[in-house]
UniProtKB/TrEMBL annotation:
Gene responsible for this protein: thiM
Family: Belongs to the Thz kinase family.
Pathway where it operates: Cofactor biosynthesis; thiamine diphosphate biosynthesis; 4-methyl-5-(2-phosphoethyl)-thiazole from 5-(2-hydroxyethyl)-4-methylthiazole: step 1/1
Pfam families reported for this sequence: HK
InterPro entries for this protein: Hyethyz_kinase, Ribokinase-like
Binding site for ATP: R119, S165
Gene Ontology MF terms: ATP binding; hydroxyethylthiazole kinase activity; magnesium ion binding
One of the GO biological process terms: thiamine biosynthetic process
Cofactor dependence: Mg(2+)
Residues given in the record as substrate binding sites: M44, G192
Gene3D superfamilies, sorted: 3.40.1190.20
Keyword Chloroplast attributed: no
Name of the featured protein: Hydroxyethylthiazole kinase
Amino acid sequence: MKEQLWKNILLLKEKSPLIHNITNYVVMNNTANALLASGASPVMAHAQAEVENMCSIAQAVVINIGTLDEYWVESMLKTARVAQQNKIPWVLDPVGAGATTYRNKVLSELLALSPQVIRGNASEIIALATQNTSTKGVDSTAESNQAIAAAKQLVKMYACTVCISGATDIIINESTQIQLDNGDPIMEKVTGMGCTASALTAAFCGITSNYFIATTTAMALLGVAGSLAAKKSQGPGSFQVHLLDVLYTITEKEFINNLQLTTYE
Ligand SMILES: Nc1ncnc2c1ncn2[C@@H]1O[C@H](COP(=O)(O)OP(=O)(O)OP(=O)(O)O)[C@@H](O)[C@H]1O
Ligand SMILES: Cc1ncsc1CCO
Ligand SMILES: [Mg+2]
């Protein structure tokens, strides 16, 4: 398994897939840089007049509702429709699910357009599955393992892969559950680490049609790179810089030796 994930990391650098991102104002720059450092080719585009064209030339798409508004939501729906029609994999990041009725309404419209992967923190995954939860905003108030039942429900309802991120990352499909114990607590002090996780997930969906393994590769890469970057950092500021460097320079040995992965069939 670990070797298969490493092969995907090399393949991403070799193929450099175009990843169409509709994401939030907060994280656009970090996300594009993380994709570039990992080997993918990002484009951020949300104009209604061009999203359908852009989506149709991409190898994968990520739709992140972090700073949604009525105009952007129309762009997201147009994009997801084209992705669905053209069988281009798309990843949903349900930022702040459960926080407002508007977010919940938009998310139900997006879910109807069949994302291949949903990646959110525990609160977001619980909110998506139950439509009834209290949450703080964009940060989770629950642990990953508290969202497993909700994630399994989403897998069934939408026939997709679900990733619950946090101190532990859990990736779930119909048959398998993978748990990753990597990363570092400093990652909670930098905005958009989850958004980066979703963008990297789309990147790996652009190089393999096994979206469960693609998601696992993305979460493993970000987690291991995060733990290595944290060792070199004094705080959240320098962490961001070191993370990009590690995504760019990480070696097979560093990846394999540090990866904490458990599979449950
Ligand atoms: N306490 C922690 N310990 C170790 N790693 C962590 C911790 N919290 C987050 N991470 C790492 O950060 C990644 C992103 O996780 P998180 O669940 O915080 O995203 P998020 O809440 O969606 O963030 P955002 O909305 O700011 O993008 C995880 O996949 C994990 O690698
Ligand atoms: C802080 C914040 N607010 C809306 S999106 C976002 C980035 C992390 O999800
Ligand atoms: Mg998030």
